[in-house]
Design brief:
- With 313 residues, the chain is mainly α.
- The protein has 14 helices and no strands.
Length: 313
């Protein structure tokens, strides 16, 4: 197990290297001159040229890449072109709300989607099964921002149960944290729940057709134990896979959700960086989000051996 984890960690290095090259080239080939943006509209050509020299933009592309990569390996993500603050400091100040939202969404999704999928598999062909799958299709088809605005209208503007926008950290005010994180979590988890529930249902139904399930039932094993001990455990690998691959929905949905609910996280920071053409900040966020996605998939691969002892690496 440890050997496999170490090997997979080593394999992430070239993947992150490819992402770094892509991020560097994407920013260099994009329209617009960072020096002009940084200097402002009133800057003289001499001032722009001086900024270009300071940023190293007057050097060959390969020299620029190695200079940027060297600073990156030293933990220097550069300076924001818009706010003139260190990019690492800006990212560190925004990562807390995003991690909180992603964690609550993941936990809520697992708590709701797996029981939904299991129940739909148990009630296959019944009205309750069709209802669960209809809700899943509706949830998967509805954009996150639409769900967010509907939740705001019902539970904030009409009922007054939750604040419309804003965020409070768990450490500063636990009650306020619950109030501000509930609606964003519900909005972001809608698509995720629908995806996981559908996969859980189909995986469990496939397992229920296996010979050992029929043998367990023939031996008089209670139906509840058949589902929880045998069917769900053996159907866990596809479910864990879709939870990990669904992290792409989670990362993309964070950007929209944080904009709708005015949460000062990485999603809002992505929007602000793109609108301002803040190249160093965009590069740092692209690398960070890519690394998170890569390590989530690494964790999924490791969990395979936990849920299914037959898998060995």
């Amino acid at each position: 197990m440890l050997t496999y984890i170490a090997r997979r960690l080593i394999m992430t290095v070239p993947i992150l290297g490819i992402v770094a090259v892509f991020a560097f080239l994407l920013m260099r080939l994009a329209p617009g001159d960072p020096a002009v943006i940084m200097a402002g509209d009133t800057a003289s050509p001499e001032q722009i040229a001086e900024i270009r020299r300071g940023l190293g933009l007057d050097q060959p592309l390969l020299a620029q890449f190695f200079r940027w990569l060297t600073l990156l390996l030293q933990g220097d993500l550069g300076v924001s072109l818009h706010s003139h603050k260190p990019v690492a400091e800006m990212v560190a100040g925004r990562i807390g709300p995003t991690l909180s939202l992603a964690t609550t969404t993941m936990i809520f999704t697992i708590m709701v989607a797996i029981p939904m999928g299991t129940y739909a598999a148990w009630a296959r062909g019944r009205a309750s099964d069709r209802l669960v799958m209809a809700l899943a299709v509706l949830g998967f088809s509805t954009p996150v921002f639409v769900t967010g605005y509907v939740l705001i209208y019902i539970f904030s503007l009409k009922a007054g149960w939750f604040p419309v926008q804003g965020y409070a950290s768990l450490a500063s005010d636990p009650l306020r944290f619950v109030q501000t994180i509930t609606l964003p979590t519900l909005a972001l988890s809608t698509v995720y729940i629908a995806l996981v529930a559908r996969i859980a249902r189909s995986s469990i139904l496939e397992v229920l057709g296996e010979d050992y399930i029929r043998t367990a039932r023939a031996k008089g094993v209670p139906e509840r134990r058949v589902f929880l001990r045998h069917a769900l455990r053996n159907a866990s690998v596809p479910i864990v896979t879709v939870i990990g691959s669904g992290a792409a929905f989670l990362i993309g949905g964070v950007v929209v959700t944080e904009s709708v609910f005015n949460i000062p996280g990485l999603g809002r920071l992505v929007v602000e960086a793109v609108l301002a053409r803040d190249y160093p900040l965009i590069q740092a966020l692209l690398l960070l989000l890519s690394a998170i996605y890569i390590f989530i998939n690494l964790a999924v691969d490791v969990l395979y051996t936990v849920f299914d002892p037959r898998i060995r690496y």
